C-alpha cells in the first residue's frame, strides 16, 4: 500500500451550481401559552400548542390548522432548539404537513424580554428555521421535493416567518 500523499489522487471537482432563495410564503402561526415541562437531560423542555394562523405567498397560501405544536428545548445558554409539526390547508383545499427545525438565540436581556412577551425587534436576536413539507395532493407534490429556509420573529402569542425555497 502506497501512503505517499503526493501519489494520492484527488476526487474530481464538481461543477458548482449556485443556490438561490425564492420567496415561498409568509407565515403567521398563532400559539397557546407555553407549557413548561421542566428540566430534562437535554435541557428545559417546553411545548407550545399551535391554535391557527395563515400563510400567503406567490405559490402557496391558506390557513394554519389548529393542532400540532412546537416541542422545544431551552439550553443552559438560553438558546432554543425548535421542533414543530403541524398542518396547513391551502386556499384551494389541499392539506400539507409541515415540520420545522431551527434555533433561536440572542443576548440574555433580549431573550428575557421575549420571555416576558414584549415586542422585540427581530434584528436583536437570531431565529432561523429549516422547513420540510409533505403532501399527497397532486397540485403540491413539488413541495415533497423542496427544501425551504426561513427567518423568523417571535411575538407574545405568535411566530411570524418568511420562508424561501432553495433552488
Polypeptide structure, described:
The protein has 167 residues and is mainly beta. The chain is 5% helix and 52% strand. The chain is built from one helix and ten strands. It has one helix at 108-115; strands spanning 21-31, 35-40, 43-56, 62-64, 69-74, 80-90, 95-105, 126-134, 148-154, 158-166. Strands 1, 2, 3, 4, 5, 6, 7, 8, 9 and 10 form a ten-stranded antiparallel beta sheet that branches. Strand 5 (69-74) and strand 6 (80-90) form a beta hairpin. The longest helix has 8 residues, at 108-115. The termini are far apart. The mean pLDDT is 94.
Distance between the termini: 43 Å
Please give the radius of gyration in angstroms.
20 Å
**Percent in strands:** over 45%
Largest sheet: 10 strands, antiparallel
Shape: globular
Low-confidence stretches: none
Keywords:
mainly beta, globular, 167 residues, 10-stranded antiparallel beta sheet
Give a topology summary.
Elements lengths: L20 E11 L3 E6 L2 E14 L5 E3 L4 E6 L5 E11 L4 E11 L2 H8 L10 E9 L13 E7 L3 E9 L1
Antiparallel strand pairs: 1-3, 1-10, 2-3, 3-4, 3-5, 4-6, 5-6, 6-7, 7-8, 8-9, 9-10
In short:
This protein has 167 residues and is mainly beta. Helices cover 5% and strands 52% of the residues.
Amino acid at each position: 500500500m502506497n501512503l505517499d500523499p503526493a501519489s494520492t489522487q484527488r476526487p474530481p471537482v464538481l461543477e458548482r451550481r449556485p443556490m438561490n432563495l425564492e420567496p415561498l410564503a409568509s407565515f403567521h402561526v398563532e400559539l397557546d401559552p407555553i407549557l413548561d415541562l421542566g428540566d430534562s437531560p437535554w435541557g428545559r423542555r417546553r411545548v407550545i400548542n399551535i391554535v391557527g394562523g395563515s400563510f400567503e405567498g406567490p405559490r402557496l397560501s391558506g390557513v394554519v390548522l389548529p393542532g400540532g405544536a412546537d416541542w422545544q428545548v431551552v439550553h443552559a445558554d438560553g438558546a432554543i432548539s425548535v421542533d414543530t409539526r403541524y398542518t396547513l390547508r391551502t386556499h384551494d383545499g389541499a392539506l400539507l404537513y409541515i415540520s420545522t427545525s431551527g434555533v433561536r438565540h440572542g443576548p440574555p436581556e433580549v431573550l428575557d424580554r421575549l420571555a416576558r412577551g414584549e415586542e422585540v425587534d427581530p434584528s436583536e436576536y437570531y431565529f432561523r428555521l429549516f422547513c420540510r413539507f409533505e403532501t399527497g395532493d397532486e397540485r403540491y407534490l413539488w413541495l415533497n421535493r423542496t427544501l425551504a429556509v426561513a427567518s423568523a420573529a417571535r411575538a407574545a402569542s405568535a411566530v411570524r416567518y418568511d420562508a424561501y425555497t432553495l433552488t
